[in-house]
Amino acid sequence: MNTKIVMGLVIGVLVLPVTLWAQRGEGGEVRAFRQQQKEETKEHYQQQQQENKEFRQSLKGESPEEKKSAIEEQRQTQFQENKAFRQTRHDENMAFLKERLANNKRLTDAQKEELINYFESQYQENVSFRDTQHAENVAFFQQIANDSNLTQEQKKDAIKAHFQQQKQENIQHRKEQRTENKAERQKIRSEVKSQAGTQSGQ
Fold first, then answer.
1. In whole angstroms, what is the distance from residue 70 CA to residue 55 CA?
2. How far apart are CA 156 and CA 201, in angstroms?
3. pLDDT greater than 50 at residue 148
4. Which long-range contacts (CB under 8 A, 24 or more apart) does 139-148 make?
């Protein structure tokens, strides 16, 4: 599977929970925010695809060792670019969430802080998850590149299987976070209902 698709799926894990929380009311503002981020993300990955195309063209005539070194450097560069892009996106999401929470009269300050901490914690989990997968990819590609017993076709098949496995890991990771998000939403809703009941009974 294409690494760009994998990265796109993982970015969805970051953006969706925050914007789902922020979507309480004023849907037009949230939709505009999401649409802008979607377009920026698409543009980011299209630009990288173009860079990759030009990069592959630039490798023509290079020795196998030069190609290997250049490819490793390119992968690392793009990983760092994507990491910085996701950090910027996270900062935007958190600022948007904090602004929405500041205007929310139903939640207590403690609940707002809990939500902010919760999404920050989830983001850090995602960073760790991606770093682990990146380290796996680096080790895997080095192993494949250095295995002279494999034909080019076998290497392609191994790479495809590797990314298929990571795709399943990504699906499982997102599923776990959706379950956690649902539990967090239910907990906050329950607290809000309890507060409303207490206030109406006074």
1. 9
2. 67
3. yes
4. 141/72, 141/75, 142/72, 145/68
